[in-house]
């Protein structure tokens, strides 16, 4: 935070409160992953479970890596699903680098 250096604040885009198409099917998610071109980052705690079947997630991550040159996938040493809330210091460097690369650049389209 600029106001309180060394502190982290959780903010959330209100649009994320709605789960549209959670059960749309793997083919829909594959099509969406193929079209996602904006900077996108996926961070997972090493010892936490996936929300879906592992194979489905791995398939989507593979497509994102192949189709989106700005996609980043990170695995952080933790067993906590809510890593961003419980251990934000483990994510801060990863997130700061991502934001500097994609949000702070003059040619960013975000």
Helix content: 25-40%
Low-confidence stretches: none
Can you count the beta strands?
A: 2
**Which overall shape is indicated by the principal axes computed on the Cα atoms?**
globular
Give the helix tally.
4
Short description:
This protein has 110 residues and is α+β, with helices and mostly antiparallel strands. 38% of the residues lie in helices and 11% in strands. A two-stranded parallel ribbon has the order 1-2.
Explain how this protein is built.
With 110 residues, the chain is of the alpha+beta class. Helix 1 packs parallel to helix 2 (54-67). The mean pLDDT is 82. The chain has four helices and two strands, in the order αβαβαα. The chain has a two-stranded parallel ribbon with strand order 1-2. It is globular and about 45 Å long.
What's the SSE blueprint?
Layout: H1 26-35, E1 40-45, H2 54-67, E2 71-76, H3 83-86, H4 89-102
Parallel strand pairs: 1-2
